[in-house]
Amino acid sequence: QVQLVESGGGLVQPGGSLRLSCAASTSILSFLTVGWYRQILGKEREWVASIYPDSSTTSYADSVKGRFTISTDNAKNTLYLQMNSLKLEDTAVYYCNSRTWSRDEYWGQGTLVTVSS
What is the DSSP letter of 32? Predict the structure, then answer.
């Protein structure tokens, strides 16, 4: 069973930065894609960013493009999300996600990011 463990959430002021990490229990190269989603209280979970670990091809939601950067350290089996210029509306629980070539899907437990002055 694949396990994904997020860390790095916390409280930050508007305009600040945070880096989220997601440690996978297996080789990150075994996944077709890995990515980040977020869920604001009372709303549906939304996609934030994805990366193909083998090619490092990335994609971003329009709401975070230019502010967030997704990356992997394949040697450490870790996914990152560097979040800069954070806004109040970025406050959410952030979830790590992975999808395999056989379309199996795994989720982390989530890490809370709160942007507040």
Answer: E
96 pLDDT above the threshold of 90? yes
* DSSP symbol at 40: -
CA distances from residue 98 to 14, 44, 70, 114 in whole angstroms, order as listed: 29, 18, 13, 24
Token duo for residue 65: 């493009």
Closest CA to 22 of 98, 93, 101: 98
Amino acid at 73: D
pLDDT band per the 50, 70, 90 thresholds, residue 41: confident
CA distance 66 to 87: 13
The pLDDT of residue 68 is above 90: yes
Distance CA 19, CA 8 (A): 6
Strands 111-115 and 10-12: parallel
Q: What is the predicted pLDDT for the residue at 27?
A: 93
Q: Find all residues with CB under 8 Å of 88, minimum gap 6, and list them.
A: 14, 115, 116
